[in-house]
Specification:
The chain has two helices and four strands. The protein is of the alpha+beta class. It has a single domain, classed as Glutaredoxin (3-Layer(aba) Sandwich), CATH 3.40.30.10. Helix 1 crosses helix 2. A four-stranded mixed β-sheet has the order 2-1-3-4, covered by helices on one side. The longest helix has 15 residues.
């Protein structure tokens, strides 16, 4: 596989109920992950971009979290409704989705 244009990391971290840090799984990351997979499949993005599910990215309280490299952009509170915007605007057009970016103190 040639070097991807971008690498999208989607947190799917789960922790036991009541854990003090919480988890992206408690906030619906599995459906966000599935939505990214569907977008990649429908748009045939697999040859140019890399999509990976991952463990904790850090800001559990603000999840689900998505990280885009090499742009060093983190999105927080991502929902399935946001996935198309991230793919269309950031992944394909190189314009990060400002309204979804993690707050300054988080990333």
């Amino acid at each position: 596989m040639p070097k991807p244009k971008k690498h999208i990391l989607v947190c799917v971290q789960g922790r036991p109920p009541g854990h003090p840090r919480g988890s992206c799984q408690e906030k619906g990351c599995n459906t966000v992950w599935q939505a990214f997979q569907q977008e990649f499949q429908q748009r045939n993005l697999w040859n140019d971009f890399l999509l990976t599910n991952t463990g904790c990215l850090g800001p559990c309280q603000a999840g689900p979290s998505v990280l885009v490299y090499p742009d060093n952009v983190m999105y927080s509170g991502v929902t399935t409704a946001d996935v198309t915007a991230i793919v269309e605007e950031h992944i394909l057009l190189d314009q990060p989705v400002e309204r979804l970016k993690a707050p300054e103190g988080v990333w």
